[in-house]
Design a protein that fits this description.
268 residues; mainly alpha; MetI-like fold
């Protein structure tokens, strides 16, 4: 009988792929594929992963990464906080009041579908080549998806919950704060997760276009030197920033939606 049959104890010291997280297996496979394809392709702008990691280590030891990463994180945080505040307020108003949606909806949907980066020259002209322009680009990328998801979340709250609150004498602010927002929080947080991902994209695109500070500035410089390893090294840092931002939002999401049954959460 096979000692590794289902239900049989596994011998000590023997490794099993089943015990590894799927994400770790996927990352390992991607790293191996990158290394192999990089060596086989032998093109300047797609070096092997080992060369990219060596370039990243050299850039980090030279102080390029830390200083510019700090600038990028400031741009990201400022832009995302503004997007979050404006997105939640406007989204709740549009979801709750039809007149507000009629007045703002056309602008929100039009600006959501428009390429956000085309507004960078406008911000550059109005705000100059500084942090303000980059933050404005971040807001343009992130705010509208938060508005639309928040409005949809508010509209999706069952009407009987609002009617029950009214029957107990709840005022409009109480209905908003104690009924609508708690019931809509899971869907709102889904929009916030999308928004933070778009905010990272806006941060990099804004920095690359304006080319003043941050990781986008390094990417622009490396691209101008045809330094493929440098570009991909900064890309790894950007991906790490995006994953960290999404993980932070997911942690807040889990804390705010602890009351939601696990079976209703799915894979959120």
């Amino acid at each position: 009988m096979n000692a590794l049959a289902e239900g049989a104890p596994r011998p000590r010291g023997q490794l099993s792929w089943r015990g590894l997280p799927p994400a770790a297996i996927s990352l390992a496979a991607g790293a191996v594929a990158w290394e192999v394809v990089g060596h086989l392709a032998a093109v300047p702008f797609f070096p092997p992963l080992s060369a990219v990691l060596a370039r990243l280590a050299a850039m980090a030891s030279g102080g390029q990464i830390v200083a510019n990463l700090a600038d990028s994180l400031v741009n990201l945080v400022l832009g995302f906080v503004i997007s979050l505040v404006v997105g939640l307020v406007a989204g709740v108003a549009m979801g709750r009041y039809r007149k507000v949606e009629a007045a703002l909806g056309v602008y929100v949907y039009a600006l959501l579908t428009a390429p956000s980066l085309v507004f960078a020259p406008i911000f550059f002209s109005l705000l100059g080549a500084g942090r303000g322009s980059i933050v404005a680009v971040v807001v343009m990328y992130a705010v509208f998806v938060i508005i639309i998801n928040t409005a949809s979340a508010i509209r999706s709250v069952p009407a009987h919950l609002v009617e029950m609150a009214r029957s107990y004498g709840a005022s409009e602010p109480q209905i908003l704060l104690r009924v609508l927002l708690p019931a809509a929080t899971p869907m709102i947080m889904a929009g916030v997760r999308l928004g933070v991902g778009r905010a990272v994209t806006g941060m990099i695109n804004g920095e690359m276009f304006i080319a003043v500070v941050g990781l986008g500035h390094i990417v622009t410089q490396a691209g101008g030197r045809f330094d493929g390893a440098g570009v991909l090294a900064v890309l790894l840092v950007i991906i790490a920033v995006a994953l960290g931002a999404v993980a932070l939002v997911q942690a807040v999401d889990r804390r705010l939606t602890r009351w939601v049954p696990e079976t209703s959460r799915g894979d959120r």
